[in-house]
Amino acid sequence: MKILFLAEHTDGTDGWSRVAQSLLFGMQKKGAAVLCMLRRDMPAEEKKSTDALRCMPLLYAPLLYTRFPWLSWWSAKRISSLIRREAPDIIHIIAEPYMLLLPFLRVPKKTRIVLTAHGTYATLLLSDPRTRSLAERAYERIDRIIAVSEFTKARLLAVQPALSSKITVAYNGIAVGGEMPKPVQRGPHYVPTAVFIGGVKERKGLKEAIAGIHAYQMIYKKPVRFEIIGAFDEKSPYVQALHRLIQEYHLEDSVRFLGHLSEEEKNARLLAADVFLMLPSSDGPYVEGFGLVYLEANAFGVPVIGPEDGAPAEIIKNGISGYTVARTAPEAVAARLHDVIDNHTLSRASAHAWAKTFSLVRQTDAVYSVYTSV
Q1: 205 vs 308: CA distance, rounded Å
Q2: Contacts (Cβ under 8 Å, ≥6 apart) of 123
Q3: What is the side-by-side order of every strand in the sheet holding 144-147?
Q4: Helices (H) and strands (E) in the chain, counts
Q5: What distance in Å separates the CA atoms of residue 367 and residue 357, rounded to the nearest whole number?
Q6: What is the mean pLDDT of the chain?
Q7: Are residues 318 and 229 part of one domain?
Q8: Contacts of 322 (CB under 8 A, 6+ apart)
Q9: In Å, how far from its chain's centre is CA 118?
């Protein structure tokens, strides 16, 4: 089987690239002939890391196609001859905006087209007037849709019910070691730490998380640190609003914005944490379609707290890997922080064991079965 992936990049720094990375190497291990088309400005380091694969930097950044839909015609024209020459059995679109090329793409008759629907852009492309027509035509050409969660599947079918016969759910996977990493030793003056990892955006629920941190300190009269790891714009209205909230709650010594960290630094912070806390919204056009970061925290043996609705509720095992709560109820968040930090109601071993059930092998096998059934 020959598979062509359309992905932005494979460096593992975001949801799209993590899925691309795991599937590219997973399908190669299964004996498939793998090639990929990535962003034109692919860094040299990334090019080196994909030397074992045939990866061609031919595409623009995915969001450029949403802003300038005419680029879809331009790119499709440039890559159609290459696709016809390679004659892949499967074209798998990892980053949803690349489906906008499909109305203009000329492919061999035997080629089947598969799309991974992650969340936001699976539906946003259908509501944006600039891309609606192209997205509708693209969905007609797609043979099978892999939704990464039941939540994502339901959102897509709510706006395009005709896709019900094409869509299936296959959860994302992560690499988990056989043994749980050893937790960091606590000193006598250690202060418990909750950690957040992700972009500092409104949909990620940082206001709600900070309110929960404040409620914990007020109700249980104990200190806790909250470390926010992820890129942010200090001048953005949302970040300014977070700073005002922190001042209002007198949490200046408790909440820290650490910005973007290297993978090694991020992992060290995660390993040292007592709990991972993220309360994303499941409303509006921008949503958390899966929430791989919860499983990444579990892989380090760190229990998680997430919302009781949306995709995270599917991948958090209540009482085993973490807890789900009403995201807008600070007292409920505080109570679960108290359970994890003070009452030790969840074990690091159980969180690690839960993460292992979402293996990369399981993800690859599920996606491969979709390829063979198309």
Answers
A1: 13
A2: 155, 156, 158, 159, 285
A3: 54-59, 33-39, 2-6, 90-93, 112-117, 144-147, 167-169
A4: 15, 13
A5: 16
A6: 93
A7: yes
A8: 275, 276, 294, 298, 303, 304, 305, 306, 316, 340, 346, 351
A9: 8
Are 254 and 226 in contact, with CB atoms under 8 Å apart?
yes
| pLDDT tens readout for residues 234-273 | 999 999 999 999 999 999 999 999 999 998 999 999 999 9
Q: Are 8 and 62 in contact (CB under 8 A)?
A: yes
Judged by DSSP in three states, 174 sits in strand
Do the strands 33-39 and 2-6 form a parallel or antiparallel pair, or are they unpaired?
Answer: parallel
Kind plus residue range of the DSSP H or E element containing 113:
strand 112-117
222 & 337 share domain? yes
Check residue 184 and give its pLDDT: 81
Whether the per-residue pLDDT at 43 is higher than 70: the answer is no
pLDDT tens-digit map of 275-295 = 999 999 887 788 889 999 999
CA 220 to mean position of chain CA atoms: 33
Same domain, 41 and 169: yes
Instruction: Give a yes or no: residue 183 inside a domain.
Output: no
Contact between residue 325 and residue 307 where contact means Cβ atoms under 8 Å apart: yes
The domain total for the chain is 2
For 178-203, what is the mean pLDDT?
A: 88
Average pLDDT score over residue span 331-360: 96
> Which has the closest alpha carbon to 287: 104, 49, 121?
121
**Could you tell me the residue range of the domain that residue 108 belongs to?**
2-173+359-373
Cβ 69 vs Cβ 130: under 8 Å: yes
DSSP state of 342: T
Helix (H, G, I), strand (E, B) or coil at 211: helix
Is residue 159 located within the same domain as residue 233?
no
CA distances from 178 to 126, 127, 273, 352 (A): 42, 44, 20, 9
